[in-house]
Amino acid sequence: MKISKHLWGAHTLGAILFATALSCTLAYAEEKPATAKGEWRSLFNGKDLEGWKVKIRGYDLGENFGNTFRVEDGLLTVGYDAYEKFDDRFGHIFYEKPFSHYMFRCEYRFIGEQAPGGAGWALRNSGVMLHCQPPETMTKDQSFPVSLEVQLLGGNGKDPRPTGNICSPGTNFVQDGKLVTAHCNNSTSKTYHGDQWVSILLEVYGNEVIKVVMEDEVVFQLEKPQLDPNDGDAKPLIKDDNLMLNGGFISLQSESHPVQFRKIEILELAP
C-alpha cells in the first residue's frame, strides 16, 4: 500500500512526540523521590540507651566497658574517662533493628581531648556505619563491623579535612561504573573545625544507591554496596556466592575521640 507523504510525515511526527513523552516520563520516574512509609522518627530517646546494643573490641556484646556509650544532658555521648589507654578498643553502638531503604539524619560534634593511645588518624574521627552485619555475628576481637562507614571527621583548625567520606571495612562498592576497593575515599564536603554541631543526611536505597548529603549538597554517592570476598570478616557472611548488600544495621562509632550525637532520626522508604 502506498502511503502519502502527508500521512507519512504525520506518522513520523507522532512517533517522535510519543518517544519524547516516554523519555520525559521515564526521566521523571527516575528522579522522583521514593515514597515514605511513615514520618521521621527518633531512634534515640534522650534518656537512656534503650533500643541500642553495644559492642566493644575485646568484650562481649552488651558489655559497655567504662561506660563508653552513655547519655549526658540528653545527648548520646562517647567518652573515655575510664580508659588509661585506648588499646584499640574500637566500639560501636547498634540500633536494634535492621533497615534497607531509608533516610537517616543526625547531628554530631567532637569535644574534649582524644583518649591516651588513640591513633593519629583517629583524632576527631567517628562514623555512621550502614548495612552493618548483625552485632551478634561479630567476633570478640573484631575491630569494626562489616559495613559501609560514613566517616565523620572534624578539622584540626587549619588543614582541609572533608567529612562524610566512605570507608569500607569488609566491603566494596561501585562508583562511576567501576568497583572501588580502596578502604577510604574522600567526599567533596568542606571542613568543619572546632566543636560546632554538624548535620548530615544519608539517603539509602538498598543495594542501588547511597548518598551522603551535607548542607543540601550530595558530597558522595555510591552504588551496589557489596561484601568483599577477600576479607576475613566478610567471608562468613557470604551466602550462595551472593555478595550484594541490600540492607543491615546502623551503628555509631567509638574510635578514641569524644563525640556527641543528637537528633538521630530515620524515615523509612518503600522499596
In short:
With 271 residues, the protein is mainly β. 10% of the residues lie in helices and 36% in strands.
Largest sheet: number of strands, sense, barrel closure: 10 strands, antiparallel
Strand content: 35-45%
Q: Please give the CATH architecture of the largest domain.
A: Sandwich
Question: What series of H and E elements makes up the topology?
Answer: HEEEEEEEEEEEEEEEEE
Q: Could you characterize what this model shows?
A:
By secondary structure, the chain is mostly beta strands. The chain has 2 domains: 1-32; 36-268, Sandwich (Jelly Rolls), CATH 2.60.120.560. Helix content is 10%, strand content 36%. It contains 1 helix and 17 strands. Strands 1, 3, 4, 6, 10, 11, 13, 14, 15 and 17 form a 10-stranded antiparallel β-sheet that branches. Strand 13 (198-205) and strand 14 (209-214) form a beta hairpin. The longest helix has 27 residues, at 5-31. The radius of gyration is 22 Å and the shape is globular. The model is unreliable at 1-32 (pLDDT under 50).
Defining key terms:
271 residues; 2 domains; ten-stranded antiparallel sheet
